[in-house]
Structures are given as structure tokens and as C-alpha cells.
Hints:
The protein has helices spanning 11-14, 21-31, 36-45, 48-70, 83-97, 103-125, 136-144, 147-168, 171-179, 187-223, 234-239, 253-272, 281-305, 309-315, 331-339. By secondary structure, the chain is mainly α.
Amino acid sequence: MLKSATACADFERTVQPYLSQLDDLPRQIYQSATDLQALKTIYLNTNPLVSAFAFSLFLVPIFLVISEITRNYSQVDRVWGILPTVCNLHYVAYAHAKNLPTQRLNSLAIISVIWGGRLTFNYWRRGGYQVGSEDYRWGILRKYINPPLYFILNVLFISLAQSVLLFSVTMPTYILLLSSPVVKADISDIIFSQLLLGAIFLTFTADQQQWDFQNAKKFYQSTAKLPAGTAFTARDLDRGFRTKGLWALSRHPNFLAEQSFWVALYAWSCYVTKSYYNWSGVGALAYLCLFQASTWLTELITARKYPDYKVYQERVGKFVPSLMGEGVADMNEEGERKRK
């Protein structure tokens, strides 16, 4: 039994003693597959962090086999908004089953469902769940990586690392679970909840602005006419990428908010355990690293496609708004000068 807030963030006390459970968990589940009561006992007797990690590993061969059979490597993308939500709900369910205080966790459960629902909805409306739909970046990478190396990439990164990553960003929730009997819910939980909801709202707003722009561009390209009531000019749509609204302040405001969500969850776990940092931050750090790499590739492709994008990069911050940036007001004229 943990008796202090700081002990709840101690890796040697809260994680290391339970790692051995991972070895025997598959056998236990297999032997009790048809016995619901036995499965419930296994669930309650297994450390919730271990069972969440095991679930992420269980999905790896499924992602791998489906992606290799279909030659579609967006299998993990399809559960990006689902797997972290499932992990967070799992921690909440475990707390309820163990009769632990759940006020803080219940709030997080609701927020997680909102986060996952929004992200999954946006992925769906963009056609992500259509048969054959795949992130265009995987197709570009296949042009530069030979099949054997791409298979290794699929095993180690696309299927394995990404699945584990989506589990790892929820590790702070495990710390919040452990701390629930020790640290009572207070106004700080409301503040952190509002920060998470704010990040979701910012992501929603940015994605909606991008959605509106892409639909207007599609209409303009197919009809050579501006959509009725649009706020965009022909020059905006000819440019090919959005530079208005939140996108005038950040080149990727949706990515900024998405990363902020998991950093805020990690900060919540630090505050509750009275620590400046703890081991669960590995997940948020890995998430930031992934977004740095994926954004670099996205911008490399975009800059080759749209001539004015390099000017946009110079004038607007990638994630955080630049106080020294020149803005996008006269970007068209600057683009014309650079092309001459």
C-alpha cells in the first residue's frame, strides 16, 4: 500500500515489481478463455499498467498481418483515437473494480471519450475508414525504401512502436489511479481537466478550419468558381494551403493542441504526486518526437508541392506562434518575388 503522493510516482515500487506478470499473462488468459469469473480474477490480480501494455503488444501481430496482406500500412492510424481511450477507460474500470476513489479518474474518462470521439470522427470524415484508404506518407516512403527494409520498418515502427506509443501516452493515468487513495480530488483537478478540454477544443477548431478550406479548394478546383459565402479568395485557394484563422499563427495548430493534451496529462500526474518529473513522461516525450519527425516529412512533401509554402515556413512558427514572425499579410507578394 502506497502511503505518500511521491511514492505513487516511484518506478521501482509501482512498476518494476509487476513486470514479471507479463510473462505468464498470455498462458493464464488462454487457460481461462471460456471462464468469465476466472478472467475477472486475472484482470483484478494483474497490475493495470501491465495488462494495458500487454493489450498493446497483443495488437501488434494483428496490425502487422493485416498491413502485409492488404499492403495498407495505416492500420494503427485507424485506432489512433481509440486505443489511448480504451487504455484510460481500463484504468478507470480497474479503479472502480477495486473500490478506489474515482472522482478524478471519472473526469478523465469523460475527457478521454471526448478526445477519442473527436479524433476518430475527424479521421472518418476525411475518409480514413474507407476501404483502401492510407496515409499518403506511407506510399511516399515505400518509393524510397526497398521491400525487405520496409517490412522491418513495419515490424519495428509502424506496428510495434506506434502501438506501444499509444499505450505509453496514457501511463500518467496509472499514476493518477495509484494516487487516488492518497491524494483527494481538489480544484487542481478542475484546472487540469479544463486544460485538457481546451486542447481538445483547439484541435477541433483547427481541424474544422482545415476541413472548410479543403472543401472550398476542392469545389474551386472542380468548378473554377468560389463557393457561395466563402471567406476565401481565389488567391487563397490557388495557394493550396490554409493561412487564415489559427493557421496564420501556427503552421500546425492541430498538432500543437494534440501534443499539448498528452503533456498536460503528464503534468497532472506530476502535480498530484508532488514531483517535477516522473517516469510516465516517457510516453509524452516519445509522442513529441514522433510529431517532430512526421511534421518534418509532411512539410518536406508540402513544400515541394506548393511554391509559397517555404515563405509560409519563414513567416509562421511550426507549432508555437512566433513572436518575431512577419505574419502572412503580404505573403503572396513575397512568394512572387522569390519565384522571380
